[in-house]
Amino acid sequence: MAAGRSLRRTLTTRLLLWQLAALLTIALSSVFFFYYIEDYTGAKFDLDISEILADGLVAEGGALRIEDTQDLAEVRRSSPGLWYVVVDEFGRRVVGGEVPPQMNSLLDGLADIESLEVLGSTSDFDGAMLFEEDSRVGDVKVMFGGGARPSWIAGMLSFAGREVGPLFVLLVAVLGGLTMLVVPQVVRASLSSLRAVERVASRIDIEQRGVRLPSDEVPSEVAALVDAINAALSRLDDGYAEKQRFLSDAAHELRTPIAILLNRLELSRKGEFDHRVLMDVHRLANLAEQLLDLQRIEHQETAPQPVEMVALSRNVMANLAPLAIAAGYDPVFDTEVESLVVLGDASSLERGLINLVQNAIIHAGGEGEILLTVHADRSIAISDSGPGIPADRRDWIFEPFHRIKPMNEGSGLGLSLVKEIIRRHNGSISVGRSDNGGAKFLVRFSKGNEAASASGAARKVGGPREGTDRLDTSEPPLRSTRREPPN
Questions:
Q1: Residue 393 CA to chain centroid, in angstroms?
Q2: What digits encode the pLDDT tens for the residues 192-207?
Q3: pLDDT at residue 421 tops 50
Q4: Are residues 442 and 325 in the same domain?
Q5: Quick check: 476 and 319 in contact, CB under 8 A?
Q6: CA–CA separation, 113 vs 90, rounded Å?
Q7: Structural domain tally of the chain?
Q8: DSSP state of 147
Q9: Burial class of residue 361 (count of CB atoms within 10 Å of its CB; 0-12, 13-18, 19+)
Q10: Beta-bridge partners for 445
């Protein structure tokens, strides 16, 4: 999702722009006030004259001389009464034009004067200006007068550049820097309550319902948005609860008539037709169980207990062996270890293995072995001799209601349910190709998911999950082997 504009950056930028606008207004007002209202002396002169004179200054034979540059020629043409005196730091002097006698007393001390404005009070003397300039011969003092009065635009620009410009730049630098430093901190402090809302919102998911965003400390401008989000979360929770009730009720409603039909078919089973009907009813029963399992997983709050997976796996294969044999398979149980203990819920793990074995019974083609193996590396494999699963479909089979075969074979919920069960036990499940060319589902439990005592776990496993339909397994036709773990 693309990130929106930063509120802190937006406020900082806008405040800085408003400060620049305010400073610019102040600068223009200052120019207008001093240039016109206070009759600034520099308004009578072209203030660029001092720079033009300094730029043309050269030293020859120990004396100063001003070259006749194009700019100086233009100034002399527009200001025929121009006079000037330029003095360097060594006291060398160059004079041009007719210096008014009123300025003679100042000529000897020009080197010690930094800047000067002289106001004229007679018609033949309109004042003078003195500036310190950089030149090719070093710092010099330039005093001039008698120049033509510039246009008001040129005069204001010249005055602004010399008198107001430096101060304006300084104010912009200082206030702009303070704005960039202070405003983000002020905005961050003002929006600190939103970070608490963000932390709560990041914890909301499908398994953490009922959480609401805090709205007590948020700004009033945001409180309405937070309240609207909380109202939306309430509607979502209500809709989710209604959906869960529907699924649970539907599963329970399906379970009872399916169990009755299954018992009647078991008692009256006579031929191949009855066998196919029996398999269909088993699939319906499995679908009802899967729907109920979804509800159990969503609402399961029991603490994890040690579960002995070798005994549990052997029990699953023993219970499903009659169904596998009836479907044409040879069920085999194999183990490399005497005990494999994980922490979790025995009934959920049992249902996960049942779904994997039943998936093999349904999809493996009705012949060959169905092998359940407990490995020494804390993994359990269920493999068959069927057609297998195409490599390009293996990432999809764990999605809910995804089927490789037609609609009449399986519900598409079993593998999704298995994946969720294994995920909740900090494990992983993958599918590949078995040694016989069929499918091989491999469940791995992490090293962290293990109990300290295998014997204690074996005592806690107990019998099968209550409510699971069991076949008669007093003498299960199951081949079981025991192998040593590989070196």
A1: 31
A2: 777 778 777 777 776 6
A3: yes
A4: yes
A5: yes
A6: 14
A7: 3
A8: P
A9: buried
A10: 427
